[in-house]
Amino acid sequence: MFELVFTRRFSMAHRLLAGESERCALPHGHNEYIRAHLRATNPTALDGRTNMVMPFQRAKGVWHGFIDNHVDHALQLAEDDPLLAWFASNEPRRARRILVTPGDPTTELLACLLMAKLNAFLAADGGALTCASIEIEETPTNTVRYSGDPLAVLPRPRAAPQCWWRRADTSISDT
User: Domains in the chain, please, with CATH?
Assistant: First the structure.
């Protein structure tokens, strides 16, 4: 079975309030690589003419634009982080650049959220492809890889059931 694999780099900042690391409770950043592995939903033989599952540009275009224009340099905060209220009151324009997560924005959670978002994009494009797995390299020595149904492991959001990671738009929060 063919897999189309696309890699993108992005910079981010987050803070983790629920964990045990005091270092991670302060906003800090990482330069991350995200690698998406796509597979045909209904695999078939190559057609003898174009011999592609899907043209690369079509398969990765929306996804790369989303990562480059919305995820890159976004601040990632939990939906109950008090910094969200501060940004809403003091810098509402910048508040739109905050990627809001259900609980701490760990790399594990981000992998599932972004896999769900990618699957929403792929379904909106006809559903010929699905994301088989996603990897996020947080540091050169720490990588998270998830395969499976991300919606089965994601925590329940406080927002509406049609939260940002289920929609095929460029949103990164429901605030």
Answer: 4-166 (3.30.479.10)
